[in-house]
From TrEMBL:
GO molecular-function term, one example from the UniProt record: isomerase activity
Full protein name: Dithiol-disulfide isomerase
Pfam family, one: Thioredoxin_5
Keywords tagged on the record: Isomerase
Length: 190
């Protein structure tokens, strides 16, 4: 079993590309894989988003940006209640809307995306405000802080059969392909 964790900046177009590539690659692995996205909350993440004018509408203030990041992470975790696959699609669609299409974060946008990925809207809206979801986000953040003390985004590949974990802090497509090449069914990783 291979566990792949993507510790991501939830408002980064680059992280969006990484997630899309990981989704595609994970379907071609020759052993069972568990793909898990963990959007990271940190001052470094907020600072990196404000430094990249291409990712979000420049009208977003840093205070608002931190709130948007937190809400995106809560929304993703609430979507995860209905399964990781739906949650990953939800996060990717939300990231694409915010970073590529430059839409403004809103409850209407989130609800529209939740419907698109077939989440139970009433449960989702309830869960995103629950204490349990906030606690689950807190647990993910503690995991990220423990595994990534000096960086903001990374991919961890944990191969339980070999009892080893590989941490990629440069998550370019080429590095992902190289790291996962031994697990891919076909030799044409590209």
């Amino acid at each position: 079993m291979i566990n792949i964790y993507h510790f991501a900046n939830p408002l980064s177009a680059e992280c969006l590309s990484t997630e899309e590539h990981l989704q595609e690659l994970s379907c071609r692995l020759n052993s069972p894989a568990h793909l898990r996205f963990i959007p990271v909350l940190s001052k470094q993440i907020a600072d990196s988003v404000t430094a990249d004018d291409n990712d979000l509408d420049s009208q977003t203030t840093p205070v608002d940006l931190s709130q948007v990041i937190y809400q995106v992470v809560l929304d993703f975790k609430a979507a995860q209640v209905e399964g990781n696959k739906k949650a990953r699609h939800f996060l990717i669609d939300l990231q694409r809307s915010l970073t590529v299409e430059h839409k403004t974060y809103s409850n209407e946008l989130v609800t529209l995306i939740a419907k698109k990925v077939d989440l139970d809207i009433n449960d989702f809206l309830h869960n995103r405000l629950s204490t349990e979801i906030a606690q689950a986000v807190n647990q993910d953040q503690k995991l990220a802080e423990r595994l990534l003390p000096n960086c903001t985004t990374a991919v961890a590949i944990d191969d339980s059969s070999q009892n080893e974990t590989q941490l990629l802090t440069n998550v370019s497509i080429d590095n992902l392909n190289a790291a996962l090449n031994t697990y891919v069914v076909t030799s044409d990783v590209g």
